[in-house]
Amino acid sequence: MKEFQPYIAEFIATFALVFIGAGAVIINAATQGALGLVGVALAHGLVLMSMIYATGHISGAHVNPAVTVAMWVNRKIETKKAALYIASQLLGACAAGFFLLGLFPAGPAHLGVPDLGGGIDSFRGIAIEAVMTFFLVFTIFSVAVDKRAPAGVYGGAIGLVLTFDILFGGALTGGAMNPARAFGPALASGYWTNQLVYWIGPLLGAVVAALVWKYALSNENKKR
After folding, report:
1. pLDDT tens digits, residue range 140-149?
2. Where are the domains of the chain?
């Protein structure tokens, strides 16, 4: 059973992120904005922070296919394991999406599927998602992977990045920064508009962040 623990952890953590994050969007829509953007941002940031502390020692708490791809690019995870991580994340996101559909069959806000705001086309949406994901993944490498970082701060730092990214980009793109966050609710609701934005943007930003950290800031190459 031990060999399956990382995948179970990724499933549970991603389920939590999508259930709470998309759920907050649904509640905000159903209550005419009672939570507001700040409430939605905090819901995402707090659940991610908690899941990182809960599962970081088991799976590394990727909770995001873009993070797993970035780790794979920097050879922090082998190919087979990366593929299983991504499968676990997508399954967790889909389970959360269908659970939300059961709770909210009317599907307010398309079950929390992120979407582009007024005046934001696909190109700008991809650019915004890429930049926000860059900040997220750059922080992950800097505080959770880099051995020089202070111990124990990674969960809070990463959760805060997700929070401030959504405060900035929530009204522009929905602030997904995570293909699983977009995919799970989309599958449950059948709402696929602009779905590619939430794959291309986060994956692009994550890979750039991984390479910037590796070649500009990491001290790993100096040891070789």
Report:
1. 999 999 999 9
2. 2-223
